[in-house]
Amino acid sequence: MSALSSSSKTSRSGLFGEGFDLGRLLLEGRAFFALIAIIVIFSILSPFYFSVSNFLTMSSHVAIFGFLAIGMLLVILNGGIDLSVGSTLGLCGVVAGWLMQGVTIEAAGVILYPPVWAVVLLTLVLGAIVGAVNGVLIAYFKVPAFVATLGVMYVARGVALLMTNGLTFNNLAGKPELGNTGFDWLGFNRIANVPIGVIILAVLAISVGLMLSRSSFGRWLYASGGNARAAELSGVPVKRVQIAVYMMSGVCAAIAGLVLSSQLTSAGPTAGTTYELTAIAAVVIGGAALTGGRGTIRGTMLGAFVIGFLSDGLVIIGVSAYWQTVFTGAVIVLAVLLNSIQYKAKPKKS
Amino acid sequence: MNDIPQATPDTQEVVLAARNVAKSYGSVHALKGVNFDIHRGQVTTLFGENGAGKSTLMKVLSGVIQPTTGKILLDGQPVSFTSSSHAQSLGISIIHQELSLAPNMTVRDNIFLGREIRTPTGIDYAEEERLTRLLMEELEEDIDPLTPVEELRLGQQQIVEIARALSVKSRILIMDEPTSALSATEVEVLFKVIRDLTSRGVSIVYISHHLEEALTITDHAVVLRDGNMTAYAPRSEIDLEWIVRNMVGENFDLGSPPSGYEFGAPALSIQDLTVMDEAGAGFAVVDNLSLDIKAGEIVCIYGLMGAGRTELMETVAGRMGQAAGEVRLHGHEVSHLTIAQRIESGLCLVPEDRQRDGLVQTMSVGQNLSLASIRKFTRGIFTSRKDENQLIEDSIRDVTVKTDGGDAAIGSLSGGNQQKVVIGKMLATHPTVIMLDEPSRGIDIGAKAEVFRLLAERARDGLAVLYSTSEVSECLSIAHRIIVMHKGHISAEFGPDATKEQIMAASGESVAA
Ligand SMILES: Nc1ncnc2c1ncn2[C@@H]1O[C@H](COP(=O)(O)OP(=O)(O)OP(=O)(O)O)[C@@H](O)[C@H]1O
Ligand SMILES: [Mg+2]
């Protein structure tokens, strides 16, 4: 049963039993140290990097990946993967844009302009539905998560392209006489100088963190990701947890879609392409195991900031986009390498 | 003859020796400087409580782990194994306590994993298959070499594990609880194989918590206690009492079923239950079976592997679907309930395979213990740390888990202690009906007595117990009623005064000579 048992972690007692273990500390806090290193290096390289306003701007970029990464973390903790989040982000943005343009109801001959809160709500519901499709395919029809979400990724992207005919909705500001203004609040406003997107990210991260560490659902999630059979026999509703997790991931993607299209005041059908990979990277850099059952929200957030601050830093110091790609890739490989050291699979154990 | 290891081992007599071997995991000292001899061409048996360090010592001797200090002498020469394949190349192989098979691969591929027989054009599957068949014949087991391992029962998987070790043809073979999931007949066959091996000069180390069984095969006994060697003796000088005394410091027996109280109303009643096999081959693994268990009653099911005990229990617990029949808990039909709902209403199962069905390896000892009782310490939407820790502490004490504390990784526990966690997790839900499928797998005699005491105590308070085992002596010391299952039916029923021979005969098992 090596497949099941090999993931067991080596004892933690080494850390406490024999005093201060620098190697382990560096390993376990690697995302944190990587973030510090990135900030220090770019602050030296560029005079513009180290400032509150730059950090806030970069954070509002991070927020988009951060939302996706939170959803992705939940899915990965469950032992799955969600490749559809980038497309769901695009689809949700497009649907929000479409609702903002006004919905023509031909039979009644009227154009409905839903208020912004309704647009937001409908978009979130859409995200949950896309997630539910993933979840049901995986939990009840036993489609491997990789394949199910790959399929949904194509379908969602295709629907977004169909809805807009490949074009972009540009006018998301709404009109005062129609009573649907305020959509740009999400992307442009600030509270105490902090962008709304970043605040939403913080709130979401804290609530998901609490859910993971303190609620029974969180415990169910870790258990069914670690060993679904054992969890089921202990009374964990494994299938319901699985569906819930994909729905949450869909909602996170919808939030990201709303914030992104608000930041850009436009909604294009190709928005979010390949973002799922960035989200996976953030989760992995944050120390979660792709085999499920291990990972924390703190790590994932650090992972998202590492990627975001690194790529923005490279832009600021003027490194070419091609090199940015290379650097990001190298960071991911390094992170996975460290993961496999941390969760080193012992060949045999009793 | 003196069995106490000499500073320089007599190479005629001793093939592999450990001298002052210590192994520490952080602050946990699993081995505290032990001396151990493996006698050439004989069976050396290692006894000891759960967590005494037996598996750790065997892993040191087979190169799986490196000792913190101490040396290993092979034929009198110091060696230092760099890996288990290094040790294997020097003729030492090991059967691990926990199965280490790849579940998705076939029996044949598992046996030759990493040692494939090659021809210039690739792997010689035909030859591998032929050798696998020979091994299965030798072990008198009807297993097709091309079956994926995950489709085998636990006991059969253990046979494959044994076959793999035999196929290496080593001169030193270490067996760490090889028989924990085997039936009496299969153990007999294994012993025949062991005798055959020793007669050809192979040296064997044998570990088991089935003390009587181990006594029949051993030539030299060694007892390990808390990481120290406490006794060495040749077979002629020892008996069961000697082992137990050296293992736990006192002698005691498993007692007899609790008595002096009346049973209550039927707690679990199974009527005409039929369950089809999971693979869909269309035969009934549980066939029209009816059984009533009253509150306070302890019922043992004895049977061979494949008799349908596991399927019966898993169906009642809600894991497998039933084809026909009724299951009632305190008079209420439960067939339509989910596993969670059944646990909630007081019905739970301690599964047979702890690695696959019992433990979440990524969680700590405490989180495993509390997993089935989360609702009990959830206040509103959040769990209460205080209540959870209380529950964990109580469970660790109840089932006597030897651990650093609730935060320890589950993989750091010894095999028997992991088993206790699985039992403790289910007892913590405070069930009114508990089913235990071979719960004594790998737990030592002291822990077994403790579990029996706990079950007896709860039975007095009205707990109904359904207990399956392959050890007749266990039935006799815990059960008010013994049921023998054979091919999905109940083939016989006995009271607590039945004899071993009667029970074994009813199971369709040839009584061991
Ligand atoms: N990887 C590990 N990390 C920390 N402690 C460990 C580890 N492996 C074993 N131990 C500890 O070492 C001690 C000896 O364990 P070992 O597995 O050798 O016991 P054992 O005699 O084989 O017991 P059992 O009969 O239950 O199999 C135990 O206290 C166990 O908790
Ligand atoms: Mg052991």
UniProtKB/TrEMBL annotation, chain A:
Signal peptide: none annotated. This is Ribose ABC transporter permease RbsC6. GO terms for molecular function: transmembrane transporter activity. It is found in: Cell membrane. GO terms for cellular component: plasma membrane. It is a multi-pass membrane protein. InterPro entries: ABC_transp_permease. It comes from Donghicola eburneus.
TrEMBL record, chain B:
PROSITE patterns: ABC_TRANSPORTER_1 (PS00211), ABC_TRANSPORTER_2 (PS50893). SUPFAM superfamilies: P-loop containing nucleoside triphosphate hydrolases. GO terms for molecular function: ATP binding; ATP hydrolysis activity. Residues 16-251, 268-512 form the ABC transporter domain. One of its GO terms (cellular component) is plasma membrane. Its EC number is 3.6.3.17. It is a peripheral membrane protein. InterPro entries: AAA+_ATPase, ABC_carbohydrate_import_ATPase, ABC_transporter-like_ATP-bd, ABC_transporter-like_CS, P-loop_NTPase. It holds the Pfam family ABC_tran. It is an enzyme of class 3 (hydrolase). It is found in: Cell membrane. SMART domains: AAA. Its main location: membrane. Keywords: ATP-binding, Cell membrane, Hydrolase, Membrane, Nucleotide-binding, Repeat, Sugar transport, Translocase, Transport. This is Ribose import ATP-binding protein RbsA.
